[in-house]
Amino acid sequence: MKISTEQLDLLDFYSKNAFVNELSEHCKEVFPFIFNELGSKNFKVGLANLINKAKASNIMQRGPLQLYIDMAIVLGSGFNTDPMYSCFGFVNEQHSSGTELERSMLIYDKFNEYLTDVLGGGNIHILDFKNKLASERFDGFSSIDLNNQIFYLLKKLYPQKCMYLGCDKSNDLICLGLEKSDTYCLSLNVRAAFVLVMFIVGHEFESDYFHLYEGFFSLEKDCDDQFLIYKAKGFLTKYIDALIT
Description:
Blueprint: H1 5-15, H2 18-30, H3 32-38, H4 40-56, H5 62-75, H6 100-119, H7 124-135, H8 146-157, H9 159-181, H10 188-201, H11 225-244
Helix pairs in contact: 1-4, 2-3, 2-4, 3-4, 4-5, 5-6, 7-11, 8-9, 8-10, 9-10, 10-11
């Protein structure tokens, strides 16, 4: 990761705040895989960027801010605007009343439900997804009813997350994923893999602060599909390992 002058200035500003260092230590303990991969400086740049985003949602206090950061690492750093996670939005009609702490407690309860229902006790559900992913071929997709084909792929690989989100949110994510994948010259099979990456890592995975995407979907258009699918699987596996290690 290259750090710009602007990011260094931001890091310098926040590094003078003892709480940022406390947050960094907390994340180092909870997410050691990510912290070690990025290194202290890059990780703190990600934290500084997240703190700026949290401010836009009026998240200022220590407890709510720590929750916001934990959720950003688990759900993706763009979770606050992700169609899958509208119920977690800190700027949300459901949480428009009450103090910052009261609103964050409501979200905390919902987030714990997500961890139980989607990741599963002992991470059993996400590990099951990881095992299924290893043997998934991503083939046979056609332009006829592509959205439904991808929905059944998500449901087959990760039924717990599909059940948690429901059909409407899952389909919203699929539509957004297919729209975003139009940016690249991808086959239908690889577009399905693109949507799956969004489904797992979040709708802003391409610019995520902590789960570093290497830009493999933007490789030359004549790149072999199986290579792109291999890269997508590796990215997803790394994301899962980062959460559970």
